[in-house]
Amino acid sequence: MSKNENDDESPMMSFKLLNIAGRARRGQLQLPHSIVETPVFMPVGTQGTMKGVLPEQLLEMDCRILLCNTYHLGHRPGHNLVKKAGGIHKMMNWPRSILTDSGGFQMVSLSKLMTVDEEGVNFESPHTGEMMLLSPEQSIHIQQCLGADIMMQLDHVIHVLTTGPIVREAMGRSIRWLDRCNAAHTRDDQTLFPIVQGGLDMDMRKECVEEMAKRAKVGIAIGGLSGGEEKSAFWRVVATCCEALPPHLPRYVMGVGHPIDLVICSLLGADMFDCVYPTRTARFGTALVRRGGELRLNQNKYANDFTPIDDKCTCETCQNYTRAFIHAISQKETVACHLISMHNIKHQLDLMRDVQKAIASGDAQEFLKTFLEEQYLGTSVPQWVIDACDYMGYKFSHF
Ligand SMILES: [Zn+2]
């Protein structure tokens, strides 16, 4: 291990806690390209573009940080080309912060042939069919060419429901790979986040937290979730990791983006999230709303509904278009996907701003009560949500 948490790697990057409410934290993450208020949702731009939303529109919404997929950028346009273009911020016309993933997860999900050994991840390129190796060093090399504010370590990803000795093996390998990533990391205007693994085993998670936290500088991620595990296991892993992690590191729970998950994880003490859900669900005509959770705009009942998606929302879509119009063009025109995506991203950003406000004012319990009432509108609140609330000390007699 060459560096530890006591070597501030750069004054450009730091995390400051502003308020604490129960387990929840409001904070400020200073990155080279922007100050990010946490808890924060990071929209995902796959190939350096957001599906259906322009960077200018994200700026308009005061989005401070995006996630870009290394795997996709590494293939097209290619990391060398991105470097030549002056880095990813310049290439995609995004002046604020960016986080890139390691590329490993996409490889696992896209490659038919994939094996992992100590050297790295061996996979068959879905573009050329040839066998390739992604090592920790190569992942860092690619991410340094891209130049995002936050890079993620390459980790040994296994399916969340995998059990047996492989879970421990993957965890140990991820720690060793973090050391290799740290050694390969040379740019001081980028920070590197370790990823806590350990499956659904709470003792292993705690053990991994200890090792990863020793090596973390600015922040840390909780990985290996949102892969089809029971929600009761999901929230307990998030709670266990947050409890075990030192307070000075922002905690990024990877792949989380459903509004209820964002709210519960934030109140459990997590700080950063990402998910393709708001833009993916927009392609199927679904808009996110506080009242009732989702609005399926393909349904005929919206054909004569001349109200906006959400009358309290200030996004461009809600200011200018009706449910009836979006219903009429839904799944026929790309503009429908664009309009819903803009609303859905704004919905997530506004939700996180409301969570921040609730933490700042000490109204977390009141916020949670109202959020659950609106989200589930008379239907029953899932048991895992009630259990998580109990664990946090919030009691709601009427759910
Ligand atoms: Zn809207």
From TrEMBL:
GO terms for biological process: tRNA modification. Residues 255-261, 279-283 are annotated as: RNA binding. InterPro entries: TGT, TGT-like_sf, tRNA_ribo_trans-like. Catalytic subunit of the queuine tRNA-ribosyltransferase (TGT) that catalyzes the base-exchange of a guanine (G) residue with queuine (Q) at position 34 (anticodon wobble position) in tRNAs with GU(N) anticodons (tRNA-Asp, -Asn, -His and -Tyr), resulting in the hypermodified nucleoside queuosine (7-(((4,5-cis-dihydroxy-2-cyclopenten-1-yl)amino)methyl)-7-deazaguanosine). Catalysis occurs through a double-displacement mechanism. The nucleophile active site attacks the C1' of nucleotide 34 to detach the guanine base from the RNA, forming a covalent enzyme-RNA intermediate. The active site is at residues 101, 274. It is found in: Cytoplasm. Its main location: cytoplasm. This is Queuine tRNA-ribosyltransferase catalytic subunit 1. Its cofactor is Zn(2+). Belongs to the queuine tRNA-ribosyltransferase family. Its EC number is 2.4.2.64. Gene3D superfamilies: Queuine tRNA-ribosyltransferase-like. GO terms for molecular function: metal ion binding; tRNA-guanosine(34) queuine transglycosylase activity. Heterodimer of a catalytic subunit and an accessory subunit. HAMAP family: Q_tRNA_Tgt. It catalyses: guanosine(34) in tRNA + queuine = queuosine(34) in tRNA + guanine. Residues 23-375 form the tRNA-guanine(15) transglycosylase-like domain. It is an enzyme of class 2 (transferase). Substrate binds at residues 101-105, 155, 197, 224. It comes from Mesorhabditis belari. GO terms for cellular component: cytosol. Keywords: Cytoplasm, Glycosyltransferase, Metal-binding, Transferase, tRNA processing, Zinc.
